[in-house]
Amino acid sequence: MEPAVLGGKLASSLVAPLVRKLFVTGGPGAGLVDRPVRLDRLVSFRGERRTLGEKEVRGLAGKLVAGSLDSPGEPPFPRDETEAVADALAARLLALGDLDMDDVQAVRLGHGELAARLRRQAAGSADGLSTDARHFLDSATEWACLHVLEFFTRRSTFVARTLVAQTRGQAELIAKVDELIARVPRPDARDTAFERRYLPYVAEQHNRITIYGLDLRDSPDRWPLEVAYLSLEATTEEERTGAFPGEYADPERTVRLPAETALTAHDRVLLRGDAGSGKTTLVQWLAVTAARDQDRIPYVLPLRTLTRAGALPSPAAFLTAVGCPLTPPEGWAERVLGAGRGLVLVDGLDEIPAADRHRTRDWLLALIRAFPGNRWLLTSRPTAVRPDWLAAEGFRELSLTPMREPDVATFVRRWHAAAEAPEFETRLLDSLRTKRDLARLATNPLMCGLICALHRERRGYLPTGRKELYDAALTMLLARRDRERGMEAVQLSEEAQLELLQRLAYALVLSGRTEMAVETAESIVERALPSVASAAGQGDAATVLRALVLRSGLLRRPGEDSLDFVHRTFQDYLGARYAVEEGHLDVIAGRAGDTQWEDVIRMAVAHARPGERAVLLRRLLAEDTPRLTLLALACLEHATALDPAVRAEVEARAGALIPPGSKEDAKTLAEAGPLVLELLPGPEGLTDAEAHGVTVTASLLAGQGPSGALAVLRRFRGHPDLDVRRQLVGTWDRFGAREYATEVLDHLDRPELILTCTTGAQRAEITGMRPWHRLEFRGTHQVADIIASVADPEAVETLRLTGNPLLTDVGQLSAFRSLRRLELEHCPAARGFEALTALPLTNLVIFRVADPTGLRELDSLRRLTLAQALPGTRLTDSLPVSALLNFLALGPKTTETTGLRGLSHWSTLQDLSLTLNTPLTAEDWAEVGSLPLLTGLYLNARLFANRLGPLPVMPGITHLGLAAVQGNEDVSALRDRLPGLRSVLVQTAPGTRFDPAPYAALFPDAEVTVDER
Predict the structure, then answer these.
(1) How far apart are CA 530 and CA 526, in angstroms?
(2) Which Pfam families does UniProt cross-reference here (predicted)?
(3) CB atoms within 10 A of CB 248
């Protein structure tokens, strides 16, 4: 037997009598008189019944230590440390009286944790002892704690007190549950019974969509939502910059996600989409899915219906406002929303007048504030409201993207399967691939449906222009033959239907609405009947209107007393046609400032005669605003015949906007549509900023004109500017993986570029390209597939893995033997960092991995960035103590248990970045102030909200960085604390506009730079 073990055994035999002397004895019962019975009342050297003093305790400890040394064999520690060990053991035993717990709680802790508490309570007691003496002291402490707990469990009051403690705990738990139930009342039986009827109703009500053009012989006019729904993508523009100084920035990129997942990450979403892009269908899909899953109670609220009644409804009136025939129990809607169970889908912000939108926003925000915790979706056309209209209220803005080639192909296949017309599918797909004009039209579900229907009806003939497509679609829809459907109705010619429909459309356009009362529609038809001969003899206005709704396929009755067009596109097209026929060009031009009229103006140019087009375009140019100039430019697409001088003037005025000089200019320019692609210059003769603006514009238009966009971007593939190259490398997702890799990516200069791969198709293309030294794999990829996709793993020097739950063993990345920089972000299963010691790794970034242990072994690191909870009580417990770090960035949660204790160990640090969510203490700042080479300090603005702490004077800091600054932070304390500053970098919070003058005045001897995000 080892001597130390034998000594420990003997010590254990001495502990039992020692413990009995340390505690006073008590009588039987539960010990309820002095409750709770704290340890300081039980120990015999504290309290009124004291029998031992500190001197006696030290004597007992001395006897135990002496007995251990006298045991057979080698002593457990050097004899000259006997007195020091006895004093240390006595200090730990005396700490029993300082523990804030009772005997039941002590037993619940266990002897190991109780010993740890005593060690912490008597911190410093083992200072100066040898390793063997420390080992004996810890062993003796644990043996003592084991016997302490054994003593407690044998006390006559322990069992009774344990039962009492359990009873009290159960009572407290029951009280808390009762309080929770009181705060979130359970729906009563009537609510539950009603929801059993309401949810199936919603699922059935919204489980059908119209198939445009399938109202033909032997064809259904609606199909199931499950078959029809195409999982389109929603996007949000996100520019990620380096999280810490010295980190390179990502290119501006589009974050794509399935549209139906829009509400999974955010409770509030403003979803934008062009006409026919599928916004309403998405609302239906979300409602049906929620109703079937029964995880949320959906409310589908079309704004055009709600605003027609005047005051917007309260929750109690939601179902009545949309014509739901079911009557809920009183207060049901408020109980649902109050419990946070609602899914509120507000559709069609663009379909109400601009004057009503602010009222609608106030109504919506009042609901959100009154009923937090629910999910809210608002849909709109892109230009109906400004980009940040609801950003301050926590709404995330997403945009439905145009359909890409795979989406179009999927839609065509599903359409023909539902229509039972497989013989036309292949021919149409071939046409869409080869006819550029036709492919440009197939960008949303509405237009794809029309193209499919026309292709089938005309057996292969398809128009090539937007106006011609609408004309053909209207002819098909309006020429439906009732007798072939077995229906008897009044007979209205196609011309008569068009005349009446365009008057109704123009009335809606003028009113700024998309829905009108049936009574209003009847009065419009009544006034038109005398001039429409073929309709005048068919009956009164009500009869003719009913026939029009029945036969045209363009009108519908969303409610008993309301009327609207099946889609806004037809309303704008027909309204523009009537305005041109009636000579209302002044009216059209006068409404050009209203974004709701943009499509009307474009269609008016398409319908107008050449002279009228010239007048209208000159009116747009006369306003001399960028948007209307670009609108005039967009109208040229529809101006088949036009005075050359007018066309030249429009293009010249647009030339002042082209090339765009900034990203913002590029985004504005892209709103004019794919015609812009033909006018984009370069790269010859452009500044670097202009070249970047052109590539941003082309990237944004990739969905609408992929061929033209690719042609523009291809011209810039040899451009040397870093921003241009980053834009090109960040646009891969918007094109086919192979085509873009071949035409653009493989020609780019690699320095400072990181290639991001998100799909298996992209991963497959990496193998065939020239080596990339910096790679990112975003999303779920098998590590083996990542390694296999890189033809020369030794060429990879930087690797970033983001959002990958399949990465478990970090050691697999050792295949990249030249790796110098590794970033792991949101890889929740990653562990095993010690396996990277063989790599020449100098830069490591870790955000949210499973287990950061093993970092201590990475001695080669020089830069380390963490946003990850660290184990231990000091930074030296988990970070590489042998690494000569010169840069360290500590993000949120990193120092929750460690503080900055141990930071001074890395005396080589030159730059320190702190983005912490815990306040800094004087001890933390002392660690920072002890760094002899530290010259750069970078702080997140959140630290200035009572978290900065007692910042000392640090004259060695010459560079200061402030991140996420909103402008209202008080940073005046930094002036006197950092007297040696020579430069100050202020990075603003996203969207913040910043005045640098106050900072320049605050730091007169430093160069102040502002980086607006």
Answers:
(1) 8
(2) NACHT, NNH1
(3) 14
Would you say residue 485 has pLDDT above 80?
no
Instruction: Please give the span between the terminal C-alpha atoms of the chain, in angstroms, as a whole number.
Output: 68
Average pLDDT over residues 581-601: 85
User: What radius of gyration do the chain's Cα atoms show?
Assistant: 37
> Mean pLDDT, to the nearest integer, of 754-762?
94
The first and second tokens of residue 166, run together, are 């359990």
Q: Which residue has the tokens 């539950």?
A: 192
For residue 729, name the pLDDT band (cuts at 50, 70, 90): very high
At 89, the pLDDT band (50, 70, 90 cuts) reads confident
pLDDT one-digit tens code per residue, 922-934? 999 999 999 999 9
- Structure-token match 């980190």, residue found: 247
DSSP code, position 864: E
CA 174 to chain centre: 38
Question: Distance from CA of residue 364 to its chain's centroid?
Answer: 22
Q: Which residues contact 929 (CB under 8 A, 6 or more apart)?
A: 952, 954
Give the pLDDT confidence score for residue 28 in this predicted structure: 43
Collapse the DSSP code of 974 into the 3-class scheme (helix H, G, I; strand E, B; otherwise coil) and give the result.
helix
Give residue for tokens 């010691």. 837
For residue 331, give the 3-state DSSP assignment.
Answer: coil
**Residue 296, Ramachandran bin (φ over 0: left; ψ between -120 and 50: alpha; else beta):** beta
406 vs 250, higher pLDDT: 406
- For residues 654 and 656, give the distance between their C-alpha atoms in angstroms, rounded to a whole number: 5
Asked if residue 211 lies in contact with residue 449, where contact means CB atoms within 8 angstroms, the answer is: yes
Nearest to 986 by CA among 973, 976, 1000: 1000
Please give the backbone phi and psi of residue 683, each rounded to the nearest 5 degrees, phi first: -80, -10
Instruction: Determine the 3-state secondary structure of 646 from DSSP.
Output: helix
Report which of 903, 865, 863, 902 is spatially closest to residue 886, judged by C-alpha positions: 863
Q: Which residue has the tokens 């979300």?
A: 286
Residue 958 CA to residue 411 CA, distance in Å, equals: 60
Distance CA 631, CA 602 (A): 8
| Cβ(443)–Cβ(400) below 8 Å | no
pLDDT digits (tens, 9 = 90+) for 91-123: 887 777 776 666 667 777 777 887 888 788 888
Contact 973, 981 (CB under 8 A): no
CA–CA dist 70, 133 (Å, integer): 15
Distance of CA 729 to the CA centre of its chain: 22
Identify whether 220 is preceded by a cis peptide bond (ω within 30 of 0).
no
Nearest to 275 by CA among 572, 517, 52: 572
The residue whose two tokens read 């892109």 is: 382
Coil/strand/helix, residue 111 = helix
Q: What are phi and psi of 462, to 5 degrees?
A: -135, 135
Nearest to 937 by CA among 887, 1007, 1008: 887
- Integer Cα distance of 850 and 24 in angstroms: 47
Contact 137, 126 (CB under 8 A): yes
Contact 604, 580 (CB under 8 A): yes
For residue 669, is it left (φ>0), alpha (ψ between -120 and 50) or beta?
Answer: alpha
Indicate if the pLDDT at residue 40 is higher than 60: no
Residues in the chain: 1013
Neighbours of 523 (CB within 10 A): 14
Q: How many Å apart are CA 991 and CA 883, to the nearest integer?
A: 39
pLDDT above 90 for 719: yes
Range in 179-193, 463-477, 591-605, 987-1001 with the lowest mean pLDDT? 179-193
Structure confidence at residue 463 (pLDDT): 67
Instruction: For residue range 288-330, list pLDDT tens digits in order.
Output: 989 998 889 999 999 888 877 778 999 999 999 888 999 999 9
Does the pLDDT of residue 889 top 70, yes or no? yes
Residue 42 predicted with pLDDT over 70? no
Question: Any bridge partners for residue 888, and if so which?
Answer: 864, 912
**CA–CA separation, 831 and 840 (whole Å):** 19
Helix/strand/coil (H/E/C) assignment for every residue in 536-583: HCCCCHHHHHHHHHHHHCCEECCCCCEEEECCHHHHHHHHHHHHHHCC
